[in-house]
Amino acid sequence: MVSTFLSLPSVSPSAALSVQDKCKDTMKSVTSFQSSFFGKDKQPLSMKTKSHGRITMAVAVKASRFDNITMAPPDPILGVSEAFKADTSELKLNLGVGAYRTEELQPYVLKVVRKAENLMLERGENKEYLPIEGLAAFNKATAELLFGADNPVIHEQRVATIQGLSGTGSLRIAAALIERYFPGSKILISSPTWGNHKNIFNDARVPWSEYRYYDPKTVGLDFDGMIEDIKAAPEGSFVLLHGCAHNPTGIDPTPQQWEKIADVIQEKNHFPFFDVAYQGFASGSLDEDASSVRLFAARGMELLVAQSYSKNLGLYAERVGAINVLCSSPDAAIRVKSQMKRIARPMYSNPPVHGARIVANVVGTPDFFNEWKDEMEMMAGRIKSVRQKLYNNLSSKDKTGKDWSFVLKQIGMFSFTGLNKAQSDNMTDKWHIYMTKDGRISLAGLSAAKCEYLADAIIDSYHNVS
Amino acid sequence: MNSSSADRRLYMLSRHLAGTISNEGSGISSSPTSAGNSVFGNVVRAPEDPILGVTVAYNKDPSPVKLNLGVGAYRTEEGKPLVLNVVRKAEHLLVNDRSRIKEYLPIVGLADFNKLSAKLILGSDSPAIQGNRVTTVQCLSGTGSLRVGAEFLAKHYYQRTIYIPNPTWGNHTKIFTLGGLTVKTYRYYDPVTRGLNIQGLLEDLNSAPSGSIVLLHACAHNPTGVDPTFDQWGQIRQLIRSKNLLPFFDSAYQGFASGNLDKDAESVRMFVSDGGECFIAQSYAKNMGLYGERVGALSIVCRNADVASRVESQLKLVIRPMYSSPPIHGASIVATILKDRNLYNEWTLELKAMADRIITMRKQLFDALSARGTPGNWTHIIKQIGMFTFTGLNTKQVAFMTKEFHIYMTSDGRISMAGLSSRTVPHLADAIHAAVTTVG
């Protein structure tokens, strides 16, 4: 990799020398002092003379205080992209991380985002600190987008919203809120779920357990298992639900199933916690993808909802999201918002302004908003069409008559192929197709041109590898 | 089942029994939340943040002479926020570059930004960098860098106590506590001399258990503006190394304090050049005026490259469950400026201009108080360095100044010189004079 940056003007030699000379003098006088002190230190040490160019310093080369730190394993999801980059095969295909790609398999910055950024540049806005809760215009827009601008919960001011660092950051704030105000309460997460959910709740010290979700036999939803496990949990537990486009399976409950899930949650006085990372991206319709959240809200339930604009506005690296707490009264919303601020302040003080301004401008400007909806439909449409093409290829090429229709039933960026770890490894090792070991593929990384190749690989891995 | 969840169950039960929740015969009880009762009943309203809350109060004040000397954000002579020219230039380059994309940054952030930030604070010829002993991760400004560092230490370091100066920035204690560390203080400010209590500082650090973490403000101490001299830094370094204490630098004002980037990094470089380990939190909020973009970096200088690489891998495990990866915009602006010789030079000029304006405000305020014959010794105003002045005013006097003169500042008597202008200095001087002469 070529280093392209210029060298910085270096410290003036005389200044450097004087600092180092002074250190040298000081070091000389404390060397004997230090050697007696170091002897008492826990860690083994040896005295060694080190040369630093012009000066020689007697430096006690002690073991580092961090010697016992082990090398952490690479992130299972992000590590896939790294392996992909290293692969030199022309056939390689990256179906690892969930970032949208065009048919040409290029990253995509939405046109409306570029327009908004240009507008922001022209206006020459300042870069003052946002309030701890984030950009007011963004918070208003995001809550309205989620619940619908004419939803009574908005008019009644019952939603506490603070801007968060995309989905992850918003989940983390909510987790910290749970830990502080509902100590001992646990959160139920689907089996499987996004890999980082467990890390977030672990670091926030919120205990979790799993509810059945994915049924490998049907490559569909284990609805009875899900209901049973939610029912069996201690009353007042939190239940993490994917608002739409479940990650990693792509399997969503039907509207009727959502009703039943809401029933059992109410029965057990559980607290629903939605992770909404794909609003508009799943079906192509913002309202349709928010229907699960709105169903619960309409029942008068209190909710936690984490939102992300990484995918639906393609703002991945800008880290834009929000945590919403729908409370039963405006007074509770005020209090809850104030406490979420207390969690954010010692974490990062206030959130980044750039991405939030983009969202506020897009949502707040009718032309931009309409353009956004069109682009979102386009992205969701492309994914639906590669699903169809993949399914067509699988069903026509697989002579065993295996039912591949789950590919069409699943929704959103991801698909759970039903492949196990060995089969997923085969996808990579033999076919240079990169995916996560749980059998998840990102359809956002699939082009129409590659559907046939992918179908061949899946069929081979499924039938010839165990 | 622990007692807290049992308590919660009892709470729910008692509300059922009190009839505040109706259980109709439908077989589905309405959730407690749907009856207008909130599970957040026990959540009290938090007070406003003591520092950021000053701006909230200021915004509510309708007075035309109000003055915000609370939060440390630079203001021009016209009292306006400033976006540096060089930042605007960099932004134009970035936004107009159609090849730029918004893909997730790596967990550790923008690679260029990290390398350039390390060079900025350590010096581009730093042996620590050349020896690959430094790991640098992009974080959310100073706060985020401190928090990630704290969480890392709480997880991996055998000493869980951090010593912070008394006084220090209001957010430090909360950051370290929530990060999992125990916070103790060391003496720092001497209210009698309005200078550094070096003896107290050295005594307190000397009695700290070996290996304890020590927070040091690299320059322009917040809130006092009192910095150790070069020789005093030497003494501090000696003591810290002899007790095997772990220094954690908070560098929020590099270049902003004296106007010179290298000078403001002297303390950090002194420590690093002795070969020892340290943590450094950097912020670009003030020196590049990137406040709301949240740009900063955490650098950990380790004994050797192998440790640095393992430490970096563990830092990722702290960051991923907190916010996955940092925001790209501000870091890209910084990298664009730092890597281009012309932009870098332009930046140093704009930085010096900001620092000079603050030094001018110090002189003007001092002169104004002298002219009014305000009782007391006010030389600390010109001796202290950086954005803030610790006036020495007490909370009663501060409250008086807010009420009578619409001057907003933190209750510890700290004022942000960056919020002053030639036009408003007389008003502030009048306020201080009145407070000192009429309020005890």
Overview of the molecule:
The complex is a heterodimer of chains A (466) and B (440). Chain A has 466 residues and is α/β, with parallel strands linked by helices. Helices cover 46% and strands 15% of the residues of chain A. Chain A has 17 helices and 15 strands. Chain A has helices at 13-38, 78-86, 111-123, 136-147, 152-155, 166-181, 195-203, 223-232, 255-267, 286-289, 291-298, 330-348, 353-364, 366-397, 406-409, 421-431, 451-464, and strands at residues 45-52, 55-62, 93-94, 159-165, 187-191, 208-212, 214-215, 220-221, 238-242, 271-276, 303-308, 320-326, 414-416, 433-434, 440-442. A seven-stranded mixed sheet of chain A has the order 4-12-11-10-9-5-6, sandwiched between helices. In chain A, strands 1-2 form a two-stranded antiparallel sheet. In chain A, strands 3-14 form a two-stranded parallel sheet. Chain A starts with 12 loop residues before the first helix and ends with a helix. The model of chain A is unreliable at 1-60 (pLDDT under 50). Helix content of chain B is 45%, strand content 12%. Chain B has helices at residues 3-17, 52-60, 85-96, 111-122, 127-130, 141-156, 172-178, 198-206, 230-242, 266-272, 305-323, 328-339, 341-372, 380-383, 395-405, 425-438, and strands at 67-68, 134-139, 161-166, 182-187, 189-190, 195-196, 213-217, 246-251, 278-283, 296-301, 388-390, 407-408, 414-416. In chain B, strand 7, helix 9 (230-242) and strand 8 (246-251) form a beta-alpha-beta unit. Chain B has 440 residues and is α/β, with parallel strands linked by helices. Chain B folds into two domains: 52-81 and 357-438, Alpha-Beta Complex (Aspartate Aminotransferase, domain 1); 104-339, Type I PLP-dependent aspartate aminotransferase-like (Major domain) (Aspartate Aminotransferase, domain 2, 3-Layer(aba) Sandwich), CATH 3.40.640. The model of chain B is unreliable at 15-35 (pLDDT under 50). Chain B has 16 helices and 13 strands. A seven-stranded mixed sheet of chain B has the order 2-10-9-8-7-3-4, sandwiched between helices. A two-stranded parallel ribbon of chain B has the order 1-12. Chain B has a two-stranded antiparallel ribbon with strand order 5-6.
